[in-house]
From TrEMBL:
GO molecular function, one term: transferase activity
Annotated protein name in UniProt: chorismate mutase
Stored Gene3D superfamilies: Aldolase class I, Chorismate mutase
Alphabetized InterPro entries for the sequence: Aldolase_TIM, Chorismate_II_sf, Class-I_DAHP_synthase, CM_dom_sf, CM_II_prokaryot, DAHP1/KDSA
Keywords tagged on the record: Transferase
Name of the top EC class for this enzyme: isomerase
Occurrences of domain Chorismate mutase (ranges): 269-360
PANTHER family linked: PHOSPHO-2-DEHYDRO-3-DEOXYHEPTONATE ALDOLASE, PROTEIN AROA(G)
Record organism: Pedobacter aquae
SUPFAM superfamilies on file: Aldolase, Chorismate mutase II
Documented EC number(s): 5.4.99.5
GO biological process: chorismate metabolic process
Amino acid sequence: MKLNLNIQPLSSWMKVSSEPLIISGPCSAETEEQLLATAHLVKNTGKVSVLRAGIWKPRTRPGEFEGIGSIGLQWLKRAKEETGLPTAVEVATAKHVEEALAAGVDILWIGARSTVNPFTVQEIADALQGADVPVMVKNPINPDLALWIGALERINRAGITKLAAIHRGFSSFEKSAYRNEPMWDLAIHLKTLAPELPILNDPSHICGTRDLIPYISQQALDLDMQGLMIESHIDPSVAWTDAKQQVTPAALTEIVNNLTIRKADSSNPEFTDKLQGLRDSIDRIDDQILQKLGERMALVEKIGEYKRDNDVTILQVNRWEEILEKRTALASALKLEKDFTEKVLELIHGESIRKQTEIMNAKTELN
Ligand SMILES: O=C(O)C(=O)C[C@]1(C(=O)O)C=C[C@@H](O)C=C1
């Protein structure tokens, strides 16, 4: 299945001053001085194409700093006039959209806490009708690809064709080094469904702490993401929100300088030839794997019929354990990851059980 989004390529609406595309600025606009000072430093890095700042902040508990509000729009306007950087803010209600558009904000983004709620997204989409503004949609808090896609579709159906997704990681109960688990598979899946949709990465929210930002940023670029949104602050130690994950503009420069930019393809004929040769070998091996899986499944069916005729259970725990043990030992000798091998075997065993259940049920129907 492919998504049917009507979108314009990123290059037609985003002027990237230096590769890769970096959107940066404070988590929150706190004071006019703080925003302007950060904007100038960020501009002077020469690495940043868009200035970001949160002015309406959804906070988990009441009583925390909830953003400076509409006054921040005037500060952003001034920052843009002084630095020439286009601006981006998060919007979460129709009123935010109206105010941001009236103040000439260049890019709007929808935050993870809004993307989870189709009512909120629809309200934002309705307010966007007729506007020609780029919109970026962060993934929902929970790892639900359909919600992310639904939000992108709602915004697109409102006529927004300058559209991008932002991967900011997902909330998880499991203890992790990250504030939000990257769960790269979901972003890769979205890219597969909509190859034309630009996906940016937000390492600040994935990491929650600045030390991990370089690693996640590199991984995002290596997964062919089109840019990075990295929070920066003149003095992160006194930031009013997300102090641990913001970086100074100087640190931002270092992070970006250390990134290796890899292209999606190479025009070097030697590379292309060698890659083709290796891919041909992979094609042959994939064919063999599938052929062998087909042969294995035929045996599983035979066993299924045999079990049915002798009233023997499908699940054979001892045999399954024996398989797991022997194959993971072989796999480790072949330098395959244990985790990976177990996952493959579990998939195969699950399919055997499904197939044999079908065979057993066929017997019930006949009787
Ligand atoms: O050995 C069997 O009894 C089978 O049916 C085969 C098989 C397998 O896929 O290898 C399937 C189900 C059992 O739980 C154990 C093993």
